[in-house]
Specification:
seven-stranded mixed beta sheet, 266 residues, alpha/beta, six-stranded mixed beta sheet
């Protein structure tokens, strides 16, 4: 875990990072929207569980948290899910039905604590309206992006993320070239199928997300991006299918990856 920070009014980032040998560091972010009915978007990595929960409860009282949105079922988005639901008695899990099915393979989630949503769904959280969308790139069929219509923030899940030499809080703090090189790597790594898709159809998906006219884009794996740079990310995403598939192969050292997390190799 890294130190929490704000990305906008009543919008808190709970950041971490994941070392990727030979590439750099992948940001891993969850987000807390405070307001009439506080919303948590994703729940951190299992390795950060204690620190994540300490940071979360320093920002919101467990009794006040109302919604826990899980953008998809990967472990870096679900690390503290059940512990948060246990601690926050009024909170409900919001996720896609596919993700809920997969989560149920590991977690016992009471039916009355879960709300399933699809692309096109909307949810009122008191003083906010959230809508759900399919992001352009994804590695789980249940993946959803979340758009906050109140302040124009797009939570894009894994999509639009990057890998950096050092993680930063805001796009302007990153080296421009390094950001987009990492962007091209990560968005192909999580979705190698992009090399097989019809670029015209893919571009329509990007246009659909771009039509939200987000003022702020928050990827689970990237710094805060605002203003005109959101358009630049949309343009960069549109070219992903024209790039060759990125596969790690021999350039990722498994033993180095395990060592980075203190896990003994076989």
């Amino acid at each position: 875990m890294l130190k929490t920070y704000t990305a906008g009014p009543e919008l808190h980032v709970l950041p971490s990072e994941l070392p990727i040998p030979d590439l750099g560091r992948q940001p891993v972010n969850a987000y807390l929207l405070r307001g009439e009915q506080p919303v948590l978007v994703d729940t951190g990595m299992p390795v950060d569980r204690e620190a994540f929960e300490e940071a979360l409860w320093s920002l919101v009282d467990p009794g006040d948290l109302r919604w826990v949105v899980v953008t998809h079922d990967d472990r870096d988005h679900t690390g503290s899910l059940t512990r948060i639901l246990d601690r926050a008695p009024h909170a409900k899990l919001v996720t896609n039905g596919i993700s809920l099915t997969r989560l149920s393979e590991e977690f016992d989630i009471p039916a009355d604590r879960a709300v399933t949503v699809n692309p096109g769904s909307r949810l009122s959280t008191g003083d906010r309206i959230l809508s759900f969308h399919r992001p352009p790139t994804f590695d789980s069929p249940g993946t959803l992006a979340v758009f906050d219509h109140t302040d124009g923030t797009l939570f894009s899940s894994d999509s639009f993320g990057t890998v950096l030499g050092e993680t930063v809080q805001h796009f302007g703090e990153a080296d421009f070239r390094e950001f987009f090189e990492g962007f091209d790597v990560l968005n192909r790594a999580i979705a190698p199928w992009t090399a097989l898709v019809d670029p015209v159809k893919f571009h329509r998906t990007v246009q659909g997300v771009a039509s939200l006219s987000a003022a702020r884009l928050l990827s689970a794996h990237g710094p805060t991006v605002e203003g005109r740079m959101v358009t630049s990310l949309m343009e960069a995403m549109a070219r992903i299918p024209s790039l060759p598939a990125w596969l790690p192969g021999a350039d990722i050292d498994l033993e180095a990856a395990l060592d980075a997390h203190g896990v003994p190799s076989a």
